[in-house]
Automatic annotation (TrEMBL):
Residues 17-263 form the MmgE/PrpD N-terminal domain. Pfam families: MmgE_PrpD_C (PF19305), MmgE_PrpD_N (PF03972). Residues 288-459 form the MmgE/PrpD C-terminal domain. PANTHER family: 2-METHYLCITRATE DEHYDRATASE, 2-METHYLCITRATE DEHYDRATASE-RELATED. InterPro entries: MmgE/PrpD_sf, MmgE/PrpD_sf_1, MmgE/PrpD_sf_2, MmgE_PrpD, MmgE_PrpD_C, MmgE_PrpD_N. GO terms for molecular function: lyase activity. Belongs to the PrpD family. This is Uncharacterized protein.
Length: 483
């Protein structure tokens, strides 16, 4: 017989402790270097949104969602003068940030934090302005730090990447709570309301990893987390009650349900070293437009061939073997079939390897229809085997993004290279490198004036008295990078 107390939040619990931390965290509690890193993370999220805002699948999403839900007070990045409701805004802007596999990730608790936090808080900025409420840049930045800290902690409580092995899309699983936390902080909710928001958000958690093969919905699943966490906070603000002690509840609790049939959850990770060990610096910025688990393969090939095409690749290559760990293999080691979709190509180790051998470097254009299904790509992919090396599963968690590449040539020679931690992980991208990524990837998509305005607004965000100026800076028309 189940006998859980009706007022579960009266007793001390990890959920309650986390809620109190979210409520009490102040600007001065956050070290300056963490605030600075958060600004650059936000800039990277905006970069990703600009790149993907007018890709074909993004345009389809905008047309469908706006036609279903109708008009509202909130902007959509790159769609000048289009306004939708706050929930639709969060969903669409998140779909853009996740729209081209360029966005951030956490190595041990895989989720894409920017695609969760940035859309939810931008929606609240527009929604607040509609109601006559303005928010400062400090409010904006502090809410993001809260979300950046909460999301990976929820993931670590579920053993991080292990949930990918079981077929869940880990980011939308971990991300609902992160969005609820960030949105609640931005709205100034108290700890009881924050607990309600967690309870409302976590019961909506979702995300199947089979979406990675051909489905457009892979681009939108972090948007479910952003939207649903925002919805949860707005409901809690209106005194709607959520599940109490939602994380550690024995029957039907978030951590217990998502760990069924696997290792028991590590509930302590939710609140471990809060305000002492900051997780925000562990969020990695991607240098390449593909799944993070393929980045070590890219680095290994770049080092072997110095970012230059392999001459007569189809004639001189006999066999390529790429060895990776189990989570990377399940996520990116699958056998591709014709024709490849963009989402499939960005998740497939063999495709990325074939591109680099033939073209020297991986660029945004490699995912255009013209280049993606070239006959020579498919011919070379037949010579590429991606295998699961079980020994890699026993390495320290920090080293499991390893890729060992072996290339056998028709003349009998062999080249090998192993990369343990890829670019952006072994050495995090610096602020200057993130700015360079912004400039490089948005060049030609927006004007130089718009670039300068966005950069200045984001990098000086803490001095803003009304952060809606960032919304205004993003209310511009943007081009499709694949055209």
């Amino acid at each position: 017989m189940i006998t859980e107390p009706e007022t579960a939040s009266d007793a001390p619990s990890p959920t309650v402790e986390l809620c109190k931390w979210v409520e009490s965290l102040t600007w001065d509690d956050v070290p300056e270097e963490i605030r600075t890193r958060a600004k650059y993370l936000i800039l990277d999220g905006i970069t990703c949104a600009i790149v993907a805002s007018h890709l074909p699948w993004s345009e389809t999403a905008v047309k469908a969602v706006s036609s279903i839900e109708g008009e509202g007070p909130c902007h959509v990045i790159g769609w000048k003068d289009l306004k939708v409701g706050p929930l639709q805004s969060a969903l669409l802007n998140s779909t853009f940030i996740q729209g081209f596999e360029l966005d951030d990730y956490h190595s041990f608790a895989p989720l894409h934090s920017n695609s969760i936090m940035v859309p939810a808080i931008l929606a609240l900025v527009s929604y607040g302005k509609h109601k006559g409420i303005s928010y400062s840049g400090k409010d904006f930045l502090l809410a993001h730090v809260v979300g950046f800290e909460v999301g990976p902690r929820v993931g670590l409580a579920l053993h991080g990447g292990e949930i990918l092995n079981r077929g869940w899309h880990s980011g939308p699983v971990f991300g609902h709570a992160a969005s609820a936390a960030a949105s609640s902080k931005f709205l100034g909710l108290n700890s009881e309301q924050i607990e309600d928001a967690f309870g409302i958000a976590c019961t909506q958690t979702c995300g199947l990893m089979s979406a990675q093969f051909e489905s457009s919905v892979k681009r939108m699943q972090h948007g479910f987390a952003s939207r649903n966490g925002l919805f949860a906070a707005l409901m809690a603000e209106q005194s709607y009650k959520g599940i109490k002690r939602v994380f550690e509840r024995e029957y039907g609790g978030f951590l217990n349900v998502f760990s069924l049939g696997a290792e028991p959850p590590v509930v302590e990770e939710l609140t471990k070293d809060l305000s002492e060990k900051w997780i925000t610096p562990e969020i990695n910025i991607k240098p390449y437009a593909c799944m993070a688990g393929i980045h070590s393969t890219i680095d290994a090939l770049y080092e072997l061939f110095d970012k230059k095409p392999l001459q007569n690749a189809m004639d001189v290559v006999k066999q390529v073997t790429i060895e990776i760990s189990e989570p990377l293999f399940k996520h990116g080691g699958w056998k591709a079939t014709k024709p490849l979709t963009v989402i499939g190509a960005q998740m497939n180790n063999a495709y990325i390897c074939a591109v680099i051998l033939l073209d020297g470097v991986l660029t945004v254009k490699n995912f255009s229809e013209k280049l993606m299904n070239r006959p020579e790509i498919w011919e070379l992919m037949e010579k590429i085997d991606v295998v699961h090396n079980k020994e890699f599963d026993t390495l320290p968690r920090t080293d499991r993004m390893i890729a060992a590449v072996k290339i056998e040539f028709t003349d009998g020679t062999i080249k090998t290279n192993t990369v343990v931690r890829p670019s952006g992980v072994k050495a995090p991208l610096s602020g200057d490198e993130i700015v360079d990524k912004f400039r490089t990837h948005t060049k030609g998509l927006i004007s130089d004036e718009a670039q300068a305005n966005i950069l200045k607004t984001v990098l000086e965000i803490e001095s803003s008295k009304d952060v809606s100026e960032l919304v205004d800076a993003l209310n511009i028309d943007i081009l499709d990078p694949l055209k």
